[in-house]
Amino acid sequence: GESVGLHLPTLSVQEGDNSIINCAYSNSASDYFIWYKQESGKGPQFIIDIRSNMDKRQGQRVTVLLNKTVKHLSLQIAATQPGDSAVYFCAETPLTTDSWGKLQFGAGTQVVVTP
Amino acid sequence: GAVVSQHPSWVICKSGTSVKIECRSLDFQATTMFWYRQFPKQSLMLMATSNEGSKATYEQGVEKDKFLINHASLTLSTLTVTSAHPEDSSFYICSAFSRGRYLERGYTFGSGTRLTVV
Q: Between these two residues, B69 and A101, which has the higher pLDDT value?
């Protein structure tokens, strides 16, 4: 998705609940998608990825869903923990020669886990 | 796992001076380095892409004479912010990419550099 806006949307989640973070991407040519977690003052940390030939992929406590029809990506975090508090970004890239590796980041979502 | 070391982690400089930021891939060879800038509460914006041994390509709106990128080896890329001004204050992040690795682990990000220009 394109990065817009001067503030991050916030998702407040109670500890133990499931979190769902959404991302709308803009480039229909994108083939590869990644979710990143960024803690304050640090670089992005890889969470999970998915290629365009899949619509779902699961990791440890996380699931990524891809809907290419509506260009939508979501990240589900099961049993959210305080350590999950961070900003989450989706990123996309088309696997074409001239754009290989260029990641376009979404706007991001601030996740706040409350006790 | 792959590690990218970025230094310094923070720097304060006077307006008009230049600042160099280093990004090193410690245990793999990075065919490509990406440089991003991130303003508070905003997303990462790609500034430029550099391939080892060739000139960097800059995204639209990024001044190549102001943000000098050098990628002299497969393990080191530098970003120099020349004649820095307060509006250049930001969080700069590098990402080392290697095509030879599994795609899903192809990107490794540095820890970022907080630049404050006073």
A: B69
Interatomic CA distance for residues B14 and B31, integer angstroms: 33
Instruction: Give ∠ CA B8-B23-B60 in degrees, rounded to 5.
Output: 105
User: Which phi and psi (to 5°) does residue B29 adopt?
Assistant: -100, 125
Closest C-alpha to B66, from B85, B43, B44: B85
Q: CA of B97: which chain A residue's CA is closest?
A: A101
- The sign of the CA dihedral B95, B39, A45, A91 is negative
Q: Give yes or no for B57 touching A (CB within 8 A).
A: no
User: Are B114 and A41 inside 8 Å of each other by CB?
Assistant: yes
| Confidence band, pLDDT 50/70/90 cuts, at residue B30 | confident
Pick from A3, A43, A101: which is nearest to B43 by CB?
A3
**Could you report the per-residue pLDDT of A17-71, keeping only the tens digit for each?**
999 999 999 888 888 999 999 999 999 999 999 999 999 999 999 999 999 999 9
Scan for tokens 């792959």, then name that residue. B2
In contact, B95 and B30? CB cutoff 8 Å: no
Amino acid (one-letter) located at A37: K
DSSP state of B117: E
Residue B53, sorted as left (phi over 0), alpha (psi -120 to 50) or beta, turns out to be: left
Give CA separation, A73 vs A7, A106, B60, in Å: 20, 11, 26
CA atoms of A19 and A112, how far apart (whole Å) = 10
